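Reviewer comment 2.1 asked that we show a complete input and output for one of the modelled complexes. We chose the guanosine-5'-triphosphate case, as it is the one discussed in the main text.
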Amino acid sequence: MQAARSTLRTLNNISVLNTSPLISWRSSRYAHTRAHAPPPSIESTSRPAATASQKQQPASPAVEFFRHRSAKFLITAVNQGHYRHLTHPEVAFAGRSNVGKSSLINSVLCSQKLVKTSKKPGHTSALNFFALSSRAGPGEISIVDMPGYGFRSRNEWGDFIVEYLSKRKVLRRVFMLVEAKVGELKSTDENFLDLLEEYKVPAQLVITKADKLKSADTDQISSAVIKQATRIAPSVLLPQAIYCSSRTRMGIDVLQAEVLSVCGLLPSK
Ligand SMILES: Nc1nc2c(ncn2[C@@H]2O[C@H](COP(=O)(O)OP(=O)(O)OP(=O)(O)O)[C@@H](O)[C@H]2O)c(=O)[nH]1
Ligand SMILES: [Mg+2]
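Response of the prediction step:
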């Protein structure tokens, strides 16, 4: 725990880019992840379908699921006591400040303004919990917007983030966001991956703001980032990244399906 805290405290201070060599994915390592974590879903498509054709196709079961649920803000938390009573399956969104976490959660929840976003990095400063629920029956999940690390992060955030990652039994997966244009992990990302690996928190990379990228570049960036991340968190990281844009909704349906799948709620086709 002490080591993890000091790892987290260094998140702000390192700016060297990583140039890690390729390490291949070994799915068998998932056997060592948290007992509460379900087997990984590795069927998600990392590449989104073309926007025009998406418009013509009927909505997927996951998209329909989110459309017919209501999303609401639950709590802002800075320690376990604040969220201990929330026991539904949970996913969290993490990443550097300004990478687009809050915007992405709005997109997933089909809500324009539920989660506050900002052009200024460091806007989200605590763990914010949101719920997706249905009046018609079961199917509630929690979604957590984590404070960004990197620019303008504060040291004291470390303890409660480590507490959250190390002890949160209902946490099914952390979606770790990396900005498409950046195209590689920063040292702050690597330090965060260290924590995920240390506490065996299942994780998946999400490449955000993909609207800023030429589609020809996406495969290259995805595999480079996955290789880099897998070297650091080989036992917890899924082998596929998801490309998303909150602006165009590219890949949001894929992400919604992943969220439902990992929470055990994917409607049968
Ligand atoms: N082009 C583009 N811009 C985006 C996208 N998603 C978010 N942004 C912009 O990026 C900025 C930061 O978005 P946020 O969602 O607040 O980012 P965050 O990661 O929650 O930031 P912190 O809470 O400060 O850590 C805002 O100006 C958004 O409008 C996207 O998909 N495409
Ligand atoms: Mg935010």
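The chain is about 30% helix and 20% strand. We note this here for comparison with the apo prediction described in Section 3.2.
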